[in-house]
Amino acid sequence: MTTTVSQLYQEMGIDADTLAFGESVLEGLKDRFEAIDAMAEQNGLKVLHAMQEARLSEAHLNGTTGYGYNDTGREAIEEIYARAFHTEDALVRPLIACGTHALAIAMSGNLRPGDELLAVSGRPYDTLEEVIGIRPSKGSLAEYGVTYAEVELLPDSSFDYDGIKKAINDRTRLIHIQRSRGYSSRKSLSVDAIGDVIAFIRTIKPEVIIMVDNCYGEFVEEKEPSDVGADMIVGSLIKNPGGGLAPIGGYICGTKACVENAAYRLTTPGLGKEVGATLGTNRLLLQGFFQAPTVTASALKAALFASALYEKLGFEVFPASNEKRTDIIQAVTLRSAEGINAFCRGIQKGAPVDAYVTPEPWDMPGYDDPVVMAAGAFVSGSSIELSADAPIRAPYNVYFQGGLTWPSAKLGILMSLQCLKEDNLVSLS
Ligand SMILES: *Cc1c(COP(=O)(O)O)cnc(C)c1O
Fold this sequence. Notes:
Blueprint: H1 5-11, H2 16-27, H3 30-53, H4 72-84, E1 89-93, H5 99-110, E2 116-119, H6 128-132, E3 147-150, H7 161-167, E4 172-178, H8 191-204, E5 209-213, E6 232-236, E7 250-254, H9 256-266, H10 282-312, E8 316-318, E9 330-333, H11 337-349, E10 371-375, E11 387-391, E12 397-401, H12 406-422
Parallel strand pairs: 2-3, 2-4, 4-5, 5-6
Antiparallel strand pairs: 1-7, 6-7, 8-9, 9-12, 10-11, 11-12
Helix pairs in contact: 2-10, 3-4, 3-10, 5-9, 10-12, 11-12
The structure holds pyridoxal-5'-phosphate.
Pyridoxal-5'-phosphate binds near residues 98, 100, 127 and 182.
């Protein structure tokens, strides 16, 4: 006798009511899921075309050791990223430890003492506060004489054009824009909105360097910020573009000059892009990039499902289920620390790895408040894999993202609801 899907769900801890509730939510999402699949087709072809144009070959899948001179696989990866994101050049390396590191070298490589960094989408992602020196920190840009200014987004999460115009001055050298929401309740920014503000900034100061923190945004729209005039887009390979396979890494794609400056910070002045062994990671970076559009589509479906499901239960969700998406993050306001803990417990229970452990809040390096993280990932800390994190602070938002496959993401979300139900934090009747 074969086991039915609903029996399997039951055996894994999802009861009939939770499953039925989930299915009723999914009924209303069919058109949206189709649109996501169409996006994955378009972006998948874009990447495949880049691989073919770069004449990717089997030899590129191997890596180097030592200095890593003439690593043709590394060069192919960088050419493919540059082609796919339509930039002059790219720096895509396993030596880049994480997204924060990629952003730090993009900024510090392109800023000089006396320059000003201007953030025009409000306060940057938490970990950048120490890179910039907003929170005093050893080795920050502030210690090297780079000043910082910031323009908040308007209450409707649009750019404050007047504020930006006033803030740009003689010393403004690099402008920071963050596409994704990060740990805030603001909206993520569409590529079109980013394009509009870039065009505006160019009328005031054409030569300023515009950098977009593209974390979580890759392959969510047809275009990337590099298609609308950004000088650099920067992100992490254990998020969207790594496709769940890249075991480490970050990228900077942009103008030749910007990428070169960043490379001098990653390695050394003079050496730049010429060194940096890849230690057998080339195949994973390439295969991961190949899969990234489809994996990102699964993550988008997961975000949309979670949004629609928690919205139907009366929770505040960002974005709302009917809103256009430009990153893979879904925030749900759970209104209590208990809610956060139950939600994260459920996500953990749905994971392929470490499903039996219970996530607890901890003081994570680089973050101000204790953070709970749920993740049972093949790549440690990978947030393109189903994961949830929540700083323990009012209004108790949980930030949910990832899902390498849609069925596994669906299970995780149903499990989060099951846990909230079992802790009497929601009722389906
Ligand atoms: C994840 C993230 C970062 C930092 O990346 P890490 O890999 O965690 O260092 C920066 N900005 C945004 C918007 C992010 O989502």
